[in-house]
Amino acid sequence: MLQNSPRWGNANVKSTLTTIKDTSLTAKFIKRGNREHEQFNRQLSGKDKRCFIATAVFGIDAIETNILRQFRDMHLIPSSLGRMITSLYYSISPYIVIVIEKYPVLKIPIRAALRWFIRSWR
């Protein structure tokens, strides 16, 4: 049997699967992003400070990032549709951040679009 073979024992299979899982670039970025956001959220007495894309292009404490969080909290979170949009954003934005980190030139048009949105909203 495969399991009883010294070469294919459970430990070797688990080790191989763990190695494959851990080397995935997408998994690394998502884990790192989630870990960093969880650490930051723990420091903030219950406020949700996630804003993946804005954090990637402006920085975690940038004025623009905080304005976008304020928009989320004031206009999206109070309604069920807004919460669904926010949930969708949180599920896809880590992947967008991976692309932004791979192609930093994308920060320029994304910053411009977000700044346009901020000016339009305010």
Describe the structure in your own words.
The protein has 122 residues and is an all-alpha fold. The termini are far apart. The chain has helices at residues 10-23, 25-42, 52-57, 63-76, 80-102, 107-121. The longest helix has 23 residues, at 80-102. It is globular, with a radius of gyration of 19 Å. The protein contains six helices and no strands.
What can be said about this structure in brief?
With 122 residues, the chain is mostly helical. It has six helices and no strands.
Topology at a glance:
Elements: H1 10-23, H2 25-42, H3 52-57, H4 63-76, H5 80-102, H6 107-121
Helix pairs in contact: 4-6
Spell out the key features of this protein.
122 residues; mainly alpha; 6 helices; 74% helix; disordered N terminus
